[in-house]
Amino acid sequence: MVALLYNIRSLHNVGSVFRTSDAAGVEKVYLCGYTPAPVDKHNRPESRLVKTALGAEKYISWEKVPGRAVGTVKLIKKLQDDGYKVLAVEQSKTSVPFHKINYGKKEFQKLALVMGNEVKGLPPSILRAVDKTIEIPMFGRKESLNVSVAYGIAVYEIVISKIKK
Predict the structure, then answer these.
(1) Cα separation, 76 vs 115, whole angstroms
(2) How confident is the model at residue 67 (pLDDT cuts 50, 70, 90)?
(3) What is the mean pLDDT of residues 27-31?
(4) What residue segments make up the domains of the chain, in order of their start?
(5) Bridge-based pairing state of the strands 132-135 and 85-89
(6) Which of 65, 72, 98, 164 matches a 20 to 30 Å C-alpha distance to 3?
(7) What pLDDT is attached to residue 161?
(8) Residue 159: left (phi > 0), alpha (psi -120 to 50), or beta?
(9) What is the reported pTM?
(10) Do the beta carbons of residue 114 and residue 158 sit within 8 Å?
């Protein structure tokens, strides 16, 4: 499994995604749009990201993807051409509850999970490019979760489903 983070602003959230990715066995994290990398443009560690990742940024392969939404859509198409099923985690009219999918099926053997901006979510161009949009059901008054928390829930649902198959 790989992860695509689009326009995630918070260094702490990105660091948390690296840590969760390491724990869940995610192969690679693509940092799209203005999502920060573990190092700045001078190759110095981003202290807030590194503090939250607790070293996971050293073990997870990562790549910075330029071009904002256009670059992300190109990456999605490339992953699909390479056999990946690409899922966005987003609440929308067409989204499917994440727990209703059997991730143990062969079609989900290679999987890419796309997470969007903490406030704005994912732009329509990215949502049109993915194979499916999944959502985490909300039962309280708030209609969203912190992006790193949502990522953790989705990744572990997928990992556990694959173990159960």
Answers:
(1) 12
(2) confident
(3) 98
(4) 2-164
(5) parallel
(6) 164
(7) 86
(8) alpha
(9) 0.95
(10) no
